[in-house]
């Protein structure tokens, strides 16, 4: 985390438990033909129409496949034609307002693996709603109830700019953006859809909902560090000293504090600043 804080331009954290929950949802979609959000957390079996389905035969293959779909959507503008293609550099340029706050929460819709591409297609408007649902996030987080700094919508398929704008206007009232970036949306349109689907959407959100993940990480680290557990493995390496561990904790704590300061602004009123007028 210390290296990511200091040297990365942009980070997309992904949670194994979230990926496994998504695979469970995909299994239900394949069996029932529709998306169900009533998944028992951390369950090894899922129920569909009264029948029990065994745990996914190759869960890690399927989980890696979801990550591959994320990368395919992320790079689609660089590989295919589109009316509103987006360069990868534009992601960090538009979604990272402060150097350290470069952690983006990603969500995909529709949910599928390459083995299950023939699942029912989601309606366009429902697809946009799904992208902001906690059930579609690739990390255990609920961005809809946290503070947005910026958000990118990367769409593939036969979708018009008007469809994008209409759905942004529809969703804006339910999303809380920081006061100084109320119009913090970045959009991308690639005309080539993924295999087996008419359209898809990747949403990248710079959102304070990642803070609990970092807090849990710090808590788990400190639980081990207080007992000096496993330290000897690292201290045998030349140049690695015990002070490095406290520096790492300080770096993570500083990041958490930055998110705390942003969350503290949530109750502040949104100022309607005057637009720049140009005299001709």
From TrEMBL:
<keyword id="KW-0547">Nucleotide-binding</keyword>
<dbReference type="InterPro" id="IPR008280">
    <property type="entry name" value="Tub_FtsZ_C"/>
</dbReference>
<keyword id="KW-0342">GTP-binding</keyword>
<dbReference type="GO" id="GO:0005737">
    <property type="term" value="C:cytoplasm"/>
</dbReference>
<dbReference type="InterPro" id="IPR018316">
    <property type="entry name" value="Tubulin/FtsZ_2-layer-sand-dom"/>
</dbReference>
<feature type="domain" description="Tubulin/FtsZ 2-layer sandwich">
    <location>
        <begin position="84"/>
        <end position="219"/>
    </location>
</feature>
<keyword id="KW-0493">Microtubule</keyword>
<dbReference type="InterPro" id="IPR036525">
    <property type="entry name" value="Tubulin/FtsZ_GTPase_sf"/>
</dbReference>
<dbReference type="InterPro" id="IPR000217">
    <property type="entry name" value="Tubulin"/>
</dbReference>
<dbReference type="InterPro" id="IPR004057">
    <property type="entry name" value="Epsilon_tubulin"/>
</dbReference>
<protein>
    <submittedName>
        <fullName>Tubulin epsilon chain</fullName>
    </submittedName>
</protein>
<dbReference type="GO" id="GO:0007017">
    <property type="term" value="P:microtubule-based process"/>
</dbReference>
<dbReference type="InterPro" id="IPR023123">
    <property type="entry name" value="Tubulin_C"/>
</dbReference>
<dbReference type="Pfam" id="PF03953">
    <property type="entry name" value="Tubulin_C"/>
</dbReference>
<keyword id="KW-0963">Cytoplasm</keyword>
<dbReference type="GO" id="GO:0005874">
    <property type="term" value="C:microtubule"/>
</dbReference>
<comment type="similarity">
    <text>Belongs to the tubulin family.</text>
</comment>
<dbReference type="GO" id="GO:0005525">
    <property type="term" value="F:GTP binding"/>
</dbReference>
